[in-house]
Amino acid sequence: MQWETVIGLEIHTQLATKSKIFSGAPTAFGAEPNTQACAIDLGLPGVLPVLNAEAVRLAVRFGSAIQAEIAPRSVFARKNYFYPDLPKGYQISQYELPVVGKGLVEIVLEDGTVKTIGVTRAHLEEDAGKSLHEEFQDFTGIDLNRAGTPLLEIVSEPDMRSPQDAVAYAKKIHQIVRYIGISDGNMQEGSFRMDANVSVRPVGQEAFGTRAEIKNVNSFRFLEKAIQFEVERQIDLIEGGGTVVQETRLYDAAKDETRSMRTKEEANDYRYFPDPDLLPLEIDAAFIKNATADLPELPDAKRARFHAEHGLSEYDANLLTGSRELADYFEVVAKESGEPKLAANWVSGELMAALNKAEKELAESPVSAPLLAGLIKRIKDGTISGKIAKQVFEAMWQGEGDADQVIESQGLKQITDSGAIETMIDEIIAANSGQVEQYRAGKEKVFGFFVGQAMKASKGKANPQQVNEILKRKLQG
Ligand code: ADP
Ligand code: MG
Fold first, then answer.
1. Ranges for the Asn/Gln amidotransferase domain (predicted)?
2. Ligand 1 proximal residues by C-beta, below 6 Å
3. What CATH number has the domain spanning 418-476?
């Protein structure tokens, strides 16, 4: 039997406000436990929540970025359940009437295909506190600092068909929230958490299979692995005669498996009802205009422009629009060097590799965009070959100056004097008569040996094209 995977994601992203969604308490990460939750966040008797306009502004920016309709009227509801990190017994969230309606985002797959993924809705809600299990023995600590922190929960349509689709979509949402400045997206600090709903169905069947929901995944790599595991588990289960039950599961990264947390029968009935302390949220055109006036060029638009304007492949355009900083860096290199394709190769290749190796952020790169552009200019005008350029890049990375200074001080200028190259090749041919005979007897692979010798003799500086031409001519002789 052939199976098809169906995935829908729910993503909680923490909004970058200074204060909580319904109170003036601060949202800063890392404070001493239980120093940042006020009476409102704790829902003590007699308090009145007041909606933070900044949280609404950020949600509206997101809605606009995914071409969604902003609800003129939305409603906050109480989602009732008991948990030690939720002492007030309910979470304020939006249920039937969310602030952001249907929207869409585009993802680019490995082979460059563009696919549209629907967003069902995005709603505002408050976060709960946190249970601390690891720091203590024999008991659990509760830190309520996070209670009342504003979240935007972004729910997708079940439009994804593979773990790779899901990762591309999650990365896209992560990219958008950072581009438009509504969240820092910091996954270690829990500012971006993903729940994956996963089911399988026989290829060709229209009805969806029963889904399991994997909660609180906090890295893209784990998301991919968790879904992969879950798909295999469900297929094995069904093929072995069993049935998938609707349940919540947790991904254990150490064991690389998902485990059941609770089944639907044990699931909470939240008894949602409109929060009597909060008026419906009404948003008019002027508020939307204000909130979205300074939105930057968005990733999809930027990607399309990089494709059209700089002639990049969908894949490269997608990669280089990964963050605003990276896109800006690339555009400076492309403009100053006048060689967008070379610029794309160098930024996505050599530069990224060096940053990864040094575990540095782009902003800390010792090779700035103008410096890299200067290097590419010297490849373009034939001063150095692409191979020597890597050596120059390395020296620039070590802080030895710009491309011209490194080329000068290390004597790396390409040898293009054909007389000099001929002399050198004559010597090589004379010294390797055995290989010459082999070549002339039809063993063409030996040609590579001669190229290698010539590059070695010139310390990589001989113009490779000239070396090839002259070698061909002389070896035939
Ligand atoms: P709930 O109200 O229980 O959270 P929803 O209908 O809102 O359920 O769906 C939650 C998420 O699950 C959405 O992202 C949706 O796309 C996804 N989803 C729904 N049905 C399936 C399914 N059969 N397989 C995979 N994902 C699904
Ligand atoms: Mg849900």
1. 328-475
2. 6-10, 155-158, 197-199, 208-209, 211
3. 1.10.10.410
